[in-house]
Specification:
Elements: H1 6-17, E1 23-27, H2 30-33, H3 39-52, H4 61-72, E2 77-84, H5 87-94, E3 105-110, H6 132-143, H7 154-164, H8 168-177, H9 183-193, H10 199-210, H11 215-228, H12 233-242, H13 247-256, E4 261-262, E5 268-269, H14 272-285, E6 295-296, H15 299-308, E7 317-321, E8 328-331, E9 343-347, E10 349-352, E11 364-368, E12 386-388, E13 409-411, E14 432-434, E15 456-458, E16 480-482, E17 504-507, E18 527-530, E19 533-536, H16 542-549, E20 568-575, E21 591-599, H17 602-620, H18 623-631, E22 638-645, H19 649-665, E23 681-687, E24 690-694, E25 701-711, E26 723-729, E27 734-740, H20 748-755, E28 763-770, E29 775-785, H21 797-805
Parallel strand pairs: 1-2, 2-3, 6-7, 7-9, 8-10, 9-11, 11-12, 12-13, 13-14, 14-15, 15-16, 16-17, 17-18
Antiparallel strand pairs: 4-5, 18-19, 20-21, 21-27, 22-25, 23-29, 24-28, 25-29, 26-27, 26-28
Helix pairs in contact: 3-4, 4-5, 6-7, 6-8, 10-14, 11-13, 11-14
């Protein structure tokens, strides 16, 4: 923005580095120079003269560009081009930058960031407002000739700093104006600034406004500075588009020129002096007769216009705000002459009379604290884009359905008396319906299913609202559904799968007893927060993990054990391949290879591991089955299964051969599992279906192999059963779950996914479980390492026992 210190900064840099350059030029105030006759040719001459130290005759811009390229292309240059406002100026003085010699530095200052588009600049620096302490020091140097204000002026100086908002130009100008003045004169000057801005500062800031391309961009700026500061950029864009201002392209222009800015949460902001400049432009159009200005916002003047009925057809926007307990009432006939009124913002105001006096050109009707029980039928709203009636006294929105084809946004939030929504059948283009915190709202009209363009439905904290009508689930265009705090909603229908555009579902603090598993089939879903669980698109909750583990069994009854866990981060790794048909509940997601569950605490982790392991055994085994089955099988029925992770076939072949040879000579599962005396691997043994190990500190793992010894029936083999592998990292409080309907197979990609969640020193336990008919007797893990590396602290049995003793036994095993 103007006055932010661009030129001063460029001069400071130039003064620091210019001695390092033989050839240099500082061309100041290019915008003003180009307004004069043959301005660009004069600038080209100045550049050549500065660098070549001689006068060069030029008669056209094209000839000048050619001379500059030919004469300067191989030189190492330092050039400052100050206050550029047209792309043609850059082209005339430095072409496309490709002919600039190596080691050259070109500094460009401009108010329009868009000028750099297509120009291969190395760095763009946006000037920021000065901090309060810096501002106070700059003001003090100009006002008092020292770094701090005099003691009697300290508070006054800080008030001036607050008014200037960190703008160096304003601080310098006011500092000079207030030099050697008394405290009373300082107070008087501050008071005057409230109604009469500093003319020099205004003149500098207004340059950016005057440089806008057309009247539509100027209208957008003036609308924003009077009515839309702090409003969402998408909301404002929608309204101003409805006014025919093409704000989709206009607002970015204003942002590029630093006239407006986008702040936190996509809210529009503006420097207070720029806002003051915009309002002053409007005042200047009719200083003594506010009713003849295009926009009215100052309460005293608006009250005067409405009381004296002096409004005219010039008025396009009006804002009047009072505190909640005020009882200000005006006659509707005061609006009769304002037939071009398109923006109306009222707060805690009452209007008496015929609402037909209000303009038919209204595009934005924002009336917080709307006093009536329903909107009068003769209120002209056929062209309204957005209706905002927050904190209204509405019982019904209107008595009969209204045909509002232009309406896109309806916000009735915090309307404490509203009992039911309107009939939506004639609001065919409504895109956003916001009914947040309507505590008596108990009915959503079934016609909501007719809103084919609805993208947002917000019913947060509607505590009296029961379950939604089934027609809601027909809304294929809805992207965001918010039901948090609707404490009577206990069910979401499986029909939610029809909401094919749904990306965000937020339903915190509801009492939903049934999780609709069809959520998993929603390809568009990106974020879910439901029953205190939350996560991103492919992040689903533990109940859905269970449904993945056993798609044929409804895991609703298993939701309860997870209620003690406050949050998860659940990631599903999808691989589309030809391994077979996908479970119906996974729709088109492809083959689900793995799930990563990240818990907050170790206690959560232990409970979740216990639940999952118990679940697997509940589904596939009973204690009686296991005891009876094992007693009928001889030791000679021992078999083994080797699961390789990574692509180190040589190691797997060695392991497989050793296990096979051991099995041939001994029926003890201890005898034929190779130990860690082989240079290829480190081994850890575990009883039953789990094995525990600590990730080695001084060993680079290249892969992993799991060996499972199990009792089996000759009719069944491990290659034909369902296999689960749970890798529990107690250090990181995470679980990685793998499932395969046939032979489990890991490749290099899988190994990279596993190793990315393991670090030296991590405490890890692996569970391996087969499907029905298998009893796991022993599990071993072989950590494959690079040959030639030291074996590390886990190669000796003594060190191994020491590592085990440092970590407590977990009941979940």
């Amino acid at each position: 923005m103007g006055g932010s210190g661009k030129t001063t900064t460029a001069k400071a840099i130039y003064n620091q580095i210019h001695r390092s350059f033989m050839d240099k030029s500082f061309i100041e105030d290019i915008r003003e120079a180009c307004k004069r006759d043959r301005g660009q040719i004069r600038l080209q001459k100045q550049l050549l003269s500065d660098v070549l130290k001689t006068k060069v005759e030029i008669h056209s811009i094209g000839r000048g560009t050619t001379v500059i390229e030919n004469r300067l292309s191989k030189k190492r240059l330092l050039i400052v081009l100050d206050d550029v406002n047209k792309s043609g100026q850059l082209k005339a003085l430095c072409g496309n930058l490709q002919w600039i010699g190596e080691g050259s530095v070109i500094i460009i200052t401009t108010r329009d960031k868009h000028l750099f588009t297509g120009l291969k600049v190395d760095y763009v620096h946006e000037m920021k407002e000065m901090h309060a302490n810096e501002s106070l020091e700059l003001l003090s140097w100009h006002a008092f000739r020292e770094a701090k204000p005099k003691e009697d002026f300290n508070e006054l100086a800080r008030n001036v700093v607050a008014y200037c908002g960190g703008l160096p130009l304003a601080l310098e100008d006011l500092g000079l104006y207030l030099t050697n003045r008394t405290t009373n004169e300082w107070r008087s000057a501050l008071s005057k600034l409230e109604t009469t801005p500093n003319p020099h500062v205004q003149e500098i800031l207004k340059i950016s406004f005057d440089g806008l391309n057309d009247e539509k961009e100027k209208d957008i700026f003036l609308d924003v500075c009077c009515f839309f500061i702090g409003k969402d950029i998408a909301y404002v864009t929608e309204i101003l588009n409805g006014c025919g201002l093409h704000s989709d392209c206009g607002i970015p222009v204003l942002i590029d020129r630093s006239l407006i800015k986008v702040e936190k949460n996509n809210k529009l902001g503006m420097h207070n002096l720029v806002q003051e400049m915009g309002k002053e432009i409007i005042r200047q159009s009719s200083r003594k007769k506010p009713g003849k200005r295009s926009r009215l916002w100052f309460n005293v003047e608006v009250v005067d216009v409405l009381t004296k009925n002096t409004g005219t057809e010039v008025v396009e926007g009006l804002a009047l705000k009072f505190h909640v307990n005020s009882r200000n009432c005006f006659k509707t006939c005061a609006f009769e002459k304002m037939q071009r009124l398109r923006l109306l913002q009222l707060e805690n105001i009452q209007l008496a009379g015929d609402y037909g006096y209000l303009s038919k050109e209204l595009r934005w009707m924002c009336w917080q604290g709307f006093p009536s029980k329903y909107i009068p039928k003769n209120f002209n709203m056929e062209n309204v884009i957005a209706i905002d009636l927050k904190r209204s006294n509405l019982r019904l929105v209107w008595k009969e359905p209204q045909d509002l084809a232009s309406l896109k946004i309806l916000n009735l939030s915090h309307s404490k008396y509203l009992t039911e929504t309107p009939d939506f059948s004639k609001l065919r283009n409504l895109e956003k319906l916001i009914l947040k915190d309507c505590p008596r709202l108990c009915k959503v009209h079934k016609s909501i299913g007719d809103l084919r363009n609805l993208i947002l439905l917000n019913l947060k904290d509607c505590t009296s609202l029961g379950n939604l009508p089934r027609s809601v689930y027909k809304l294929k265009s809805v992207k965001t559904l918010i039901l948090s705090g609707c404490s009577k909603i206990d069910k979401l229908e499986e029909d939610i799968v029809q909401m094919e555009s749904l990306t965000t579902l937020i339903a915190k603090n509801v009492v939903v007893k049934e999780v609709p598993f069809s959520i998993v089939t929603l390809k568009s879903i990106e974020y879910i927060s439901l029953c205190e669980y939350e996560g991103l698109s492919h992040n689903v909750f533990p109940s859905i993990i269970l449904s993945w583990m056993s798609p044929t069994i409804n895991p609703l009854s298993y939701i309860h054990p997870f209620c003690c866990i406050s949050s998860f981060l659940v990631s599903m790794h999808i691989q589309n391949n030809a391994f077979g048909d996908v479970a119906p509940m996974l729709g088109g997601l492809g083959i689900l290879r793995s799930v990563l569950v990240q818990c907050d605490t170790e206690l959560q982790l232990l409970k979740l591991v216990r639940t999952i392991v118990d679940y697997i055994y509940d589904v596939y085994f009973t204690d009686l089955e296991i005891t009876s089955y094992a007693s009928r099988i001889s030791k000679h029925s021992l078999s083994s299964w080797l699961i390789g992770i990574g692509s180190y076939q040589e190691v797997f072949q060695i392991l497989s051969k050793s296990i096979h040879e051991g099995l041939a000579i001994n029926d003890s599962c201890d005898a034929f599992l190779p130990g860690d005396n082989d240079p290829h691997w480190l081994v850890r043994m575990g009883e039953g279906n789990s094995v525990y190990f600590t990730v080695p500190e001084n060993c680079r793992m290249k892969g992993m192999a799991l060996c499972v010894v199990y009792l089996t029936n000759p009719k069944n083999t491990a290659a034909e059963c369902l296999i689960y592998v749970l890798m529990v990292n107690y250090t990181k409080c995470s679980i990685k779950i793998y499932k395969q309907d046939t032979v489990i197979s890991f490749n290099d990609v899988d190994w990279q996914g596993i190793i990315s969640h393991l670090e030296p020193g991590d405490k890890v336990k692996i569970f391996v479980t087969f499907g029905h008919g298998f009893v796991v007797k022993k599990t071993a893990v072989y950590l494959i390492r690079t040959l030639g590396e030291p074996s590390g602290p886990l190669t000796s049995s003594k060190r191994t026992l020491k590592c085990w003793s440092h970590y407590p036994h977990h009941s979940c095993s």
